[in-house]
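Closing statement on the zinc ion sub-project.
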Amino acid sequence: MIKIAPSILAADFAKLGEEVLEVEKAGADWIHIDVMDGHFVPNISFGAIVVDAIRPLTKLPLDVHLMIENADRYIEDFAKAGADYITVHVEACPHLHRTIQLIRASGVKPGVVLNPHSPIETILPILEDIDLVLFMTVNPGFGGQKFIESVVPKVEQLSKIIREKGLSIDIQIDGGINEETIIPCAKAGANVFVAGSAIFGKRDRREALQAIKRAGEE
Ligand code: DX5
Ligand code: ZN
């Protein structure tokens, strides 16, 4: 089963509530929320206040992607705001195991994100502690970038390891996903797909979202 998580980073912030409702109606499975601090990534987006504002509007899982330093300091805020998933970058968390435990203890499902260059080996020791692995297929910081294909073999490797260990972990892809780029990723074993510009950049969000989903399910 393929899940689509529209990234609100590409939405019209002046009418964010309507945008969320529209993609929910279009068949979104999760709502992806990109939090950027201007330190770990070269861009600033928004914080927990936006999660708090969206929470009462939708029953869909809120998938919070933290592209920030000092994640430990903010986990409680995002949990209280209503996050269902919190993913943190291996590159930004020197005490990753502790951070994962903090997320779990705050009642949220933890996930780990790998930048395009990061090897999967860094997360093998904590696989049993997480619900989600997110592979970046762009360098994080901005929407609308080009998909980096060399990430796909890593997805295939990890998917095989997860199967062999009999674990149930979602594999998510983020960056440059559209109805073409989803195909190799789904074949490699990913099942949750973030799409920003490929959904919010289109007039007919339902048609855009469903076309991506169909391509992934083929
Ligand atoms: C990039 C973000 C992505 C981004 C995806 O740093 O993590 O979630 O919004 O946007 P598209 O789908 O346009 O590449
Ligand atoms: Zn993201």
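The longest helix spans residues 152-165. With this model delivered, the sub-project is considered complete and its resources will be redirected to Aim 3.
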